[in-house]
Amino acid sequence: MDTETLIELVQAVSESELTRFRYEEKDVKIQLEKKKGKLQLVKTSELPAEKDSGTAEKKEEKSQSQVKAGRLVESPLVGTFYAAPAEGEKPFVSVGDTVKKGQPLAIIEAMKLMNEIESEYDGTLEEILVENGDMVEYGQPLFRIR
């Protein structure tokens, strides 16, 4: 799904009386939910497309430079990282917490949509690699889980 189509979809749902909308097509799953008059992207997932050699090289360099053991949860998109569901609330997780696969770890805001980042692994949260409010890039490590 291209960005223009996604924006049109968000606008259509925003202007409608719908409070929740779910869309699935091949390798794309999107769930939109309105809360307090604002539209929020609750969860998205997209299967990875074939990677170009530049991306593969960067991932190889990153994995070679990692000294600490553990599995990384990486950012699936570019946006602003938020550790808590809302300002002034308790963070989703803290270092030392036991996490389960599918458990919310953070939110990344992109294009005014809130994208929930879920754990890809069961384990103990060893490290949070970014700060609340940081801009993150696609593929940037966010959490290390052991």
Word description of this protein:
This protein is elongated. The chain folds into two domains: 3-45, no CATH class; 65-145, OB fold (Dihydrolipoamide Acetyltransferase, E2P) (Beta Barrel), CATH 2.40.50. The protein has helices at residues 3-15, 53-65; strands spanning 20-25, 28-35, 38-46, 71-74, 79-82, 98-99, 104-110, 113-118, 123-128, 135-136, 141-145. The chain is α+β, with helices and mostly antiparallel strands. It starts with a helix and ends with a strand. The protein has two helices and eleven strands, in the order αβββαββββββββ. Strands 4-11-9-6 form a four-stranded antiparallel β-sheet, with no helix packed on it. It has a four-stranded antiparallel β-sheet with strand order 8-7-5-10, with no helix packed on it. Strands 1-2-3 form a three-stranded antiparallel β-sheet.
Structure summary:
This protein has 146 residues and is α+β, with helices and mostly antiparallel strands. It is built from 2 helices and 11 strands, in the order H-E-E-E-H-E-E-E-E-E-E-E-E.
**Beta-strand fraction estimate:** 35-45%
User: What is the number of independent domains?
Assistant: 2
Give the CATH superfamily of the largest domain.
RNA polymerase II/Efflux pump adaptor protein, barrel-sandwich hybrid domain
- Looking at how many chains there are and whether they match, the oligomeric state comes to single chain
- The number of helical elements comes to 2
Percent in helix? 10-25%
Mean pLDDT: 76
Order of helices and strands: HEEEHEEEEEEEE
Query: How do the strands line up in the largest sheet?
Result: 4-11-9-6
Cα-atom radius of gyration: 16 Å
Class by helix and strand content? alpha+beta
The number of E-state strands comes to 11
- Might you state the CATH topology name of the largest domain? OB fold (Dihydrolipoamide Acetyltransferase, E2P)
